[in-house]
Q: What sequence folds into this?
């Protein structure tokens, strides 16, 4: 039975994929909020804090993930994740999965616990993603050290950069597809056909809003391009 999860920072448009899966008959958990998140999230939040104990901040916007990548998974982490996913793991639906943006904070250990999952890497231009608040803006809430700043967009950019680098540091799982939010919105049919081939299931067509792409161009205030520029170029966005 294919098991699916979406990996991507909050406000990257992951709700779009979650709603697509849900309306296509994929069991996404007993309770899902308006953002398509499997809730309650508290056990997974606790798992994030356990993982963070093994990440070392080396100053600025640099973190050392080597210990977390090389060590045995903390048993307390396993317990918290299995408790959070209990209803999904026990369900007998032919297709199951979950979405919670904070899963990205523990991606390396999720891949090791569940190597056969169909992973969807969800990417969005971070200049759009940092315009609105999200629970992961303050990495310190999840036990992750980072440089102090009074600039909220800079704080969000640091959070985005941390998660982007953690995703890059994670060994590539056996099943992985990368989807850009902008492609899903502007080339929905083409993108859904690619996802259908990857997942092996027909997907519903939900309403998307083209105006959600490129909102940063009309936003007031400065954007921390010194933090985002290199990653934007790597991801193929125009800088």
A:
């Amino acid at each position: 039975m294919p098991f699916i999860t979406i990996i991507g920072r909050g406000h990257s448009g992951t709700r779009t994929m979650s709603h697509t899966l849900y309306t296509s008959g994929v069991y996404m958990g007993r309770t899902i909020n308006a953002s398509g998140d499997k809730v309650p999230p508290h056990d997974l939040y606790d798992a994030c804090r356990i993982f963070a104990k093994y990440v070392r901040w080396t100053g600025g916007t640099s973190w050392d993930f080597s210990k977390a990548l090389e060590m045995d998974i903390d048993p307390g982490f396993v317990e918290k994740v299995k408790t959070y996913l209990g209803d999904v793991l026990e369900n007998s639906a032919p297709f199951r999965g979950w979405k919670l943006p904070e899963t990205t904070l523990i991606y390396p250990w999720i891949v090791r616990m569940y190597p056969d999952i169909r992973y969807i890497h969800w990417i969005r231009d971070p200049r759009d993603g940092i315009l609105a608040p999200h629970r992961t803006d303050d990495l310190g809430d999840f036990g992750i050290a980072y440089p102090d700043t009074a600039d909220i967009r800079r704080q969000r950019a640091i959070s985005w950069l941390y998660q982007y680098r953690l995703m890059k540091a994670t060994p590539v799982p056996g099943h992985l597809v990368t989807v850009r939010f902008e492609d899903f919105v502007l080339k929905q049919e083409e993108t859904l056909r690619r996802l259908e081939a990857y997942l092996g299931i027909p997907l519903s067509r939900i309403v998307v809003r083209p105006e959600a792409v490129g909102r940063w161009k009309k936003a007031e205030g400065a954007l921390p391009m010194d933090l985002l520029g290199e990653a934007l170029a790597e991801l193929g966005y125009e800088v």
Summary: Residues 50 and 75 are 10 Å apart (CA to CA).
